[in-house]
Amino acid sequence: MTDSVIIIPTYNEKENIEKIIRAIYGLEKSFHILVIDDGSPDGTAQIVHRLKETEFPDSLFIIERSGKLGLGTAYIAGFKWAIEHKYDYVFEMDADFSHDPNDVPRLYAACHDEGYDVAVGSRYITGVNVVNWPIGRVLMSYFASMYVRMVTGFKIHDTTAGFKCYRRRVLETIELDKIRFKGYAFQIEMKFTAYKIGFKIKEVPVIFVNRREGVSKMSGGIFGEAFFGVLRLRLDGWFRKYPKKGE
Q: How many helices (H) does the chain have, and how many strands (E)?
Protein backbone atom coordinates (compact mmCIF):
# COMPACT_ATOMS: atom_id res chain seq x y z
CA MET A 1 0.00 0.00 0.00
CA THR A 2 1.26 3.45 -0.88
CA ASP A 3 0.55 6.67 0.99
CA SER A 4 0.01 8.69 -2.21
CA VAL A 5 -2.47 8.98 -5.06
CA ILE A 6 -2.14 11.02 -8.25
CA ILE A 7 -5.40 12.40 -9.65
CA ILE A 8 -5.44 12.82 -13.44
CA PRO A 9 -8.53 14.44 -15.02
CA THR A 10 -9.07 13.42 -18.65
CA TYR A 11 -11.12 14.39 -21.66
CA ASN A 12 -10.02 12.87 -24.98
CA GLU A 13 -6.51 11.86 -23.90
CA LYS A 14 -6.20 8.51 -25.71
CA GLU A 15 -2.80 9.53 -27.15
CA ASN A 16 -1.37 10.21 -23.70
CA ILE A 17 -3.14 8.28 -20.96
CA GLU A 18 -1.38 4.91 -21.22
CA LYS A 19 2.02 6.59 -21.58
CA ILE A 20 1.54 8.81 -18.51
CA ILE A 21 0.27 5.89 -16.42
CA ARG A 22 3.28 3.75 -17.36
CA ALA A 23 5.66 6.67 -16.72
CA ILE A 24 4.27 7.13 -13.20
CA TYR A 25 4.48 3.40 -12.47
CA GLY A 26 8.08 3.49 -13.67
CA LEU A 27 9.09 5.81 -10.82
CA GLU A 28 11.12 4.40 -7.96
CA LYS A 29 8.48 5.29 -5.37
CA SER A 30 5.08 3.65 -5.62
CA PHE A 31 2.09 5.87 -6.40
CA HIS A 32 -1.54 4.98 -7.01
CA ILE A 33 -3.42 6.70 -9.85
CA LEU A 34 -7.02 7.90 -9.99
CA VAL A 35 -8.27 8.95 -13.44
CA ILE A 36 -11.37 11.16 -13.54
CA ASP A 37 -12.77 10.87 -17.07
CA ASP A 38 -15.49 13.25 -18.23
CA GLY A 39 -17.16 11.00 -20.81
CA SER A 40 -14.33 11.07 -23.36
CA PRO A 41 -15.77 9.96 -26.73
CA ASP A 42 -12.31 8.91 -27.95
CA GLY A 43 -12.07 5.83 -25.69
CA THR A 44 -9.76 7.21 -22.98
CA ALA A 45 -11.74 5.45 -20.23
CA GLN A 46 -11.63 2.12 -22.07
CA ILE A 47 -7.83 2.30 -22.18
CA VAL A 48 -7.74 2.88 -18.41
CA HIS A 49 -10.12 -0.03 -17.78
CA ARG A 50 -7.96 -2.33 -19.92
CA LEU A 51 -4.82 -1.39 -18.00
CA LYS A 52 -6.62 -1.82 -14.68
CA GLU A 53 -7.99 -5.24 -15.58
CA THR A 54 -4.83 -6.65 -17.16
CA GLU A 55 -1.90 -5.06 -15.30
CA PHE A 56 -2.73 -2.71 -12.42
CA PRO A 57 -5.82 -4.01 -10.59
CA ASP A 58 -4.76 -2.75 -7.16
CA SER A 59 -3.19 0.62 -7.99
CA LEU A 60 -5.17 2.12 -10.90
CA PHE A 61 -8.66 3.52 -10.36
CA ILE A 62 -11.15 5.43 -12.50
CA ILE A 63 -14.22 7.57 -11.91
CA GLU A 64 -16.31 8.10 -15.05
CA ARG A 65 -18.57 11.14 -15.28
CA SER A 66 -21.30 11.79 -17.81
CA GLY A 67 -19.82 14.81 -19.58
CA LYS A 68 -17.50 17.82 -19.40
CA LEU A 69 -18.29 19.07 -15.91
CA GLY A 70 -15.18 21.19 -15.38
CA LEU A 71 -11.66 20.69 -14.10
CA GLY A 72 -12.49 21.96 -10.62
CA THR A 73 -15.39 19.57 -10.07
CA ALA A 74 -13.23 16.69 -11.34
CA TYR A 75 -10.57 17.44 -8.76
CA ILE A 76 -13.15 17.92 -5.98
CA ALA A 77 -14.55 14.46 -6.78
CA GLY A 78 -11.01 13.08 -6.73
CA PHE A 79 -10.14 14.80 -3.45
CA LYS A 80 -13.20 13.36 -1.74
CA TRP A 81 -12.35 9.90 -3.04
CA ALA A 82 -8.73 10.25 -1.82
CA ILE A 83 -9.86 11.40 1.64
CA GLU A 84 -12.31 8.48 1.87
CA HIS A 85 -9.49 6.06 0.96
CA LYS A 86 -7.11 7.61 3.52
CA TYR A 87 -4.24 8.64 1.25
CA ASP A 88 -1.81 10.92 3.09
CA TYR A 89 -0.56 12.76 -0.03
CA VAL A 90 -2.81 13.71 -2.94
CA PHE A 91 -1.50 15.03 -6.27
CA GLU A 92 -2.98 16.99 -9.15
CA MET A 93 -1.42 16.23 -12.53
CA ASP A 94 -2.23 16.63 -16.23
CA ALA A 95 -2.36 13.65 -18.58
CA ASP A 96 -0.49 15.31 -21.45
CA PHE A 97 3.12 15.31 -20.13
CA SER A 98 3.11 19.07 -19.61
CA HIS A 99 3.87 17.97 -16.04
CA ASP A 100 6.94 15.75 -15.97
CA PRO A 101 6.35 12.53 -13.99
CA ASN A 102 9.99 12.71 -12.86
CA ASP A 103 9.09 15.82 -10.84
CA VAL A 104 6.47 13.96 -8.79
CA PRO A 105 9.00 12.66 -6.21
CA ARG A 106 10.29 16.22 -5.70
CA LEU A 107 6.80 17.48 -4.84
CA TYR A 108 6.32 14.48 -2.56
CA ALA A 109 9.61 15.19 -0.80
CA ALA A 110 8.62 18.82 -0.15
CA CYS A 111 5.58 17.60 1.80
CA HIS A 112 6.77 14.29 3.23
CA ASP A 113 10.39 15.15 4.05
CA GLU A 114 10.39 18.93 4.46
CA GLY A 115 7.04 19.23 6.24
CA TYR A 116 5.18 21.53 3.85
CA ASP A 117 1.41 21.17 3.54
CA VAL A 118 1.18 22.02 -0.16
CA ALA A 119 3.89 21.67 -2.83
CA VAL A 120 3.36 23.59 -6.08
CA GLY A 121 5.19 22.66 -9.28
CA SER A 122 6.11 26.24 -10.19
CA ARG A 123 6.92 27.49 -13.68
CA TYR A 124 7.88 30.97 -12.48
CA ILE A 125 9.82 30.65 -9.22
CA THR A 126 13.16 30.70 -11.10
CA GLY A 127 12.20 32.84 -14.12
CA VAL A 128 9.92 31.52 -16.87
CA ASN A 129 10.33 27.76 -17.34
CA VAL A 130 7.90 27.00 -20.15
CA VAL A 131 8.73 25.05 -23.33
CA ASN A 132 6.82 25.13 -26.67
CA TRP A 133 4.12 27.57 -25.59
CA PRO A 134 3.25 30.45 -27.93
CA ILE A 135 4.70 33.67 -26.52
CA GLY A 136 1.21 35.15 -26.09
CA ARG A 137 0.17 32.23 -23.91
CA VAL A 138 3.35 32.50 -21.83
CA LEU A 139 2.78 36.21 -21.24
CA MET A 140 -0.90 35.69 -20.41
CA SER A 141 -0.08 33.02 -17.83
CA TYR A 142 2.86 34.90 -16.32
CA PHE A 143 0.98 38.18 -15.99
CA ALA A 144 -2.09 36.35 -14.67
CA SER A 145 0.02 35.17 -11.74
CA MET A 146 1.40 38.68 -11.25
CA TYR A 147 -2.17 40.03 -11.28
CA VAL A 148 -3.21 37.51 -8.61
CA ARG A 149 -0.29 38.49 -6.37
CA MET A 150 -1.05 42.18 -6.83
CA VAL A 151 -4.79 41.91 -6.11
CA THR A 152 -4.69 39.38 -3.26
CA GLY A 153 -1.30 39.96 -1.66
CA PHE A 154 -0.70 36.22 -2.09
CA LYS A 155 3.05 35.64 -2.51
CA ILE A 156 3.04 32.49 -4.64
CA HIS A 157 4.70 33.08 -8.05
CA ASP A 158 2.73 30.46 -10.02
CA THR A 159 -0.81 30.87 -8.73
CA THR A 160 -2.46 29.09 -11.68
CA ALA A 161 -0.21 25.99 -11.54
CA GLY A 162 -2.07 22.70 -11.80
CA PHE A 163 0.77 20.41 -10.69
CA LYS A 164 0.52 20.05 -6.92
CA CYS A 165 0.82 17.80 -3.90
CA TYR A 166 -1.45 18.24 -0.87
CA ARG A 167 -1.25 16.66 2.54
CA ARG A 168 -4.60 15.04 3.27
CA ARG A 169 -5.28 17.36 6.21
CA VAL A 170 -5.32 20.35 3.81
CA LEU A 171 -8.11 18.80 1.75
CA GLU A 172 -9.96 17.72 4.92
CA THR A 173 -9.81 21.29 6.29
CA ILE A 174 -10.72 23.21 3.13
CA GLU A 175 -14.49 23.17 2.75
CA LEU A 176 -14.44 21.54 -0.68
CA ASP A 177 -18.14 22.08 -1.35
CA LYS A 178 -17.60 25.84 -0.96
CA ILE A 179 -14.95 25.99 -3.71
CA ARG A 180 -16.71 27.96 -6.46
CA PHE A 181 -14.57 27.95 -9.54
CA LYS A 182 -14.11 25.34 -12.25
CA GLY A 183 -11.25 26.47 -14.50
CA TYR A 184 -8.00 28.35 -13.93
CA ALA A 185 -9.58 30.15 -11.00
CA PHE A 186 -10.07 26.79 -9.25
CA GLN A 187 -6.30 26.42 -9.00
CA ILE A 188 -5.96 29.94 -7.60
CA GLU A 189 -8.82 29.46 -5.14
CA MET A 190 -7.43 26.21 -3.72
CA LYS A 191 -4.00 27.72 -3.10
CA PHE A 192 -5.41 30.97 -1.73
CA THR A 193 -7.75 29.12 0.65
CA ALA A 194 -4.91 26.91 1.93
CA TYR A 195 -2.81 30.04 2.46
CA LYS A 196 -5.61 31.89 4.33
CA ILE A 197 -6.14 28.91 6.63
CA GLY A 198 -2.43 29.00 7.46
CA PHE A 199 -1.00 25.98 5.67
CA LYS A 200 2.66 26.07 4.59
CA ILE A 201 3.14 26.20 0.81
CA LYS A 202 6.37 25.54 -1.07
CA GLU A 203 7.02 26.27 -4.74
CA VAL A 204 9.18 23.59 -6.35
CA PRO A 205 10.73 24.73 -9.67
CA VAL A 206 9.61 22.65 -12.66
CA ILE A 207 9.80 22.99 -16.43
CA PHE A 208 6.38 23.02 -18.07
CA VAL A 209 6.32 21.48 -21.57
CA ASN A 210 3.36 22.16 -23.85
CA ARG A 211 1.44 19.03 -24.78
CA ARG A 212 3.00 16.95 -27.56
CA GLU A 213 -0.16 15.04 -28.50
CA GLY A 214 -3.89 15.70 -28.26
CA VAL A 215 -5.76 19.00 -28.11
CA SER A 216 -5.58 21.73 -25.46
CA LYS A 217 -8.77 22.30 -23.42
CA MET A 218 -7.98 25.97 -22.70
CA SER A 219 -10.64 28.58 -23.49
CA GLY A 220 -11.16 32.31 -23.13
CA GLY A 221 -13.94 31.72 -20.62
CA ILE A 222 -11.48 30.04 -18.28
CA PHE A 223 -9.33 33.17 -18.24
CA GLY A 224 -12.39 35.38 -17.75
CA GLU A 225 -13.41 33.30 -14.72
CA ALA A 226 -9.90 33.69 -13.32
CA PHE A 227 -9.83 37.47 -13.84
CA PHE A 228 -13.09 38.16 -12.03
CA GLY A 229 -12.65 35.26 -9.61
CA VAL A 230 -9.51 36.86 -8.19
CA LEU A 231 -11.45 39.99 -7.25
CA ARG A 232 -14.01 37.78 -5.50
CA LEU A 233 -11.22 35.98 -3.63
CA ARG A 234 -9.85 39.31 -2.45
CA LEU A 235 -13.26 40.20 -1.00
CA ASP A 236 -13.44 36.75 0.59
CA GLY A 237 -10.06 37.38 2.16
CA TRP A 238 -11.53 40.39 3.95
CA PHE A 239 -14.93 39.06 4.96
CA ARG A 240 -15.05 35.25 4.82
CA LYS A 241 -14.49 33.16 7.94
CA TYR A 242 -12.05 30.43 6.96
CA PRO A 243 -11.87 27.05 8.72
CA LYS A 244 -9.28 26.66 11.43
CA LYS A 245 -6.25 24.49 10.80
CA GLY A 246 -6.14 21.40 12.99
CA GLU A 247 -2.77 20.31 14.28
A: 8, 9
